[in-house]
Amino acid sequence: MTETRWDDEIATIRRLRAERTKVGHGERPAVVIVDFQKAFVAHEKSGPSAAAALSNTAVLLDAARAAGVPVIYLVMILDSLEDRMLAQRVRSSLTERCERGNPWTEISDVVAVQPGDHVVEKTVATGFYKTRLHDLLTELNIDEVVVVGTSTSGCVRATVMDAAYRNYRVSVVEECVDDFRTVSGEVSLWDMQDRFGDVRSLEHMLGHFAALGRRREMAAPA
Description:
InterPro entries: Isochorismatase-like_dom, Isochorismatase-like_hydrls, Isochorismatase-like_sf. This protein is of the alpha/beta class.
């Protein structure tokens, strides 16, 4: 039996991800921040990658707001722990810290909500299940969701899938997502690029927002 060399496997999927055809951007993006709450970025298994994703996201949000791109926060808020899906009630889960009023549910100060931003509560991994997210995106006339947050293989991937099912263009910013399950995160980035949307670099997205901001300034009435 041949032994799997995981470093080689990761290198292969990164190459495939870079080569995969891109869907492309829309004209009316919104940034959707998935679960950058203390429960998910400051827990016992959090490491330097979580801090880096938060810091990178703060840079992205400055660029988005400067370009007039809406910012939407998804937060896991439970009125009761019994509201969780069965698997999370059976197994130990960080969602145990997500009851309404628990300080763990607060959004990280690194990416704090600003005036004009939107906050959408959810109870499961995806931001679309029994929430107002789709209605909000429709009201804002959004055609592209730029997804950041945690975890890459969990709530980020679930939200990306549901956005793709609703025919939004999807861009996942690689440096702005995090997963303490390193291999799961890498595989999920490849899976999302392969099936549901585009995985983009922070540098690319900053350039995209800057260009969008310039176009909007030129189109604005004098």
